[in-house]
Write a structure and sequence with these properties.
By secondary structure, this protein is an all-alpha fold. It is built from 5 helices and 2 strands, in the order αααβααβ. The radius of gyration is 61 Å and the shape is flat.
Length: 273
């Protein structure tokens, strides 16, 4: 409890205290030579199965010479040369692009014909040349003796073809195949319809009255359930119940209306079950 009432400041704290001197122990120095390799180490023994020297780091007759001392650069790689010229680095494209050939003076190829030189301003063109040829007569004679040109051959019209207006042969085959399929389908339909006609019969009045009576009784039961619903329909379940009863009464009314007709045929499938 005395710590609770102890004051944080005190006049005794103003008195300087002597600094504590930390006495460090002497630095550890191993008695073994640090330049010798570790004893019985497999470091740097690539390609050899012999271990290195013994615990003293010297050569041992059992293990042989130290692998680290026997192989050059067997510990941490080759020695890095410090005399490196920073300017002799690899240039761009030195190993990918061939060296450019030395520049040579341009020489014109002797195979190409040389153009005539530009005439000087002192040179005058040859003028006053005339001819005695009558070009009108020469053109007339040339056209008279020329072979007349034949008009290009035009493609024949489709109406001039031999098969124009005739039904292709493949259409007749397709029509025959379609007709055979239609006859086969009609035959199957007639057979099925004949079998169904044999099973059809007229419903008697007693059967019709019994079914109508049962449907009316079912409608009354459904209507009674519908009338028993609450006035306030405020939940999803009540809404679904009300809609389901309405659909059921509508289906019963449609069935009674169909059975009220005079002639009703039914399909007799009692022997199939």
């Amino acid at each position: 409890m005395w710590r609770t009432y102890q004051q944080q400041e005190s006049v005794y704290n103003l008195i300087p205290r002597p600094a504590e001197q930390i006495i460090k122990p002497p630095m550890y120095r191993s008695k073994h030579d640090a330049k010798l390799p570790p004893s019985c180490s497999s470091f740097g023994l690539q390609g050899s199965s012999k271990l290195t020297a013994n615990e003293s780091g010297t050569e041992d007759p059992l293990f042989g010479k130290s692998a680290a001392n026997g192989k050059p650069a067997a510990t941490f790689g080759k020695e890095v040369i410090t005399s490196i010229d920073p300017t002799s680095f690899m240039k761009k494209g030195a190993k990918t692009k061939p060296a450019a050939p030395d520049a040579k003076p341009f020489q014109r190829s002797a195979l190409l014909p040389s153009r005539p030189g530009v005439p000087k301003r002192t040179e005058k063109p040859v003028m006053g040349l005339t001819t005695e040829k009558n070009f009108v007569v020469a053109n007339a004679v040339e056209n008279i003796l020329a072979v007349p040109r034949r008009p290009p051959k035009e493609a024949p019209l489709a109406t001039q073809a031999k098969s124009f207006g005739k039904v292709p042969g493949y259409l007749g085959k397709i029509k025959r195949d379609v007709e055979q399929e239609r006859e086969y389908v009609q035959q199957l339909s007639r057979q099925q319809h004949a079998g169904e006609q044999d099973r059809m019969r007229m419903m008697t009045e007693d059967e019709k009255n019994d079914i109508i009576s049962g449907l009316k009784k079912k409608w009354e039961d459904t209507h009674k359930q519908y009338q028993a619903l609450t006035f306030n329909i405020d939940t999803v379940t009540k809404v679904q119940r009300k809609e389901g009863l309405e659909v059921e009464m509508e289906q019963i009314e449609k069935a009674i209306q169909k059975l009220s007709k005079k002639n009703i045929h039914v399909y007799d499938d009692s022997d199939l079950w």
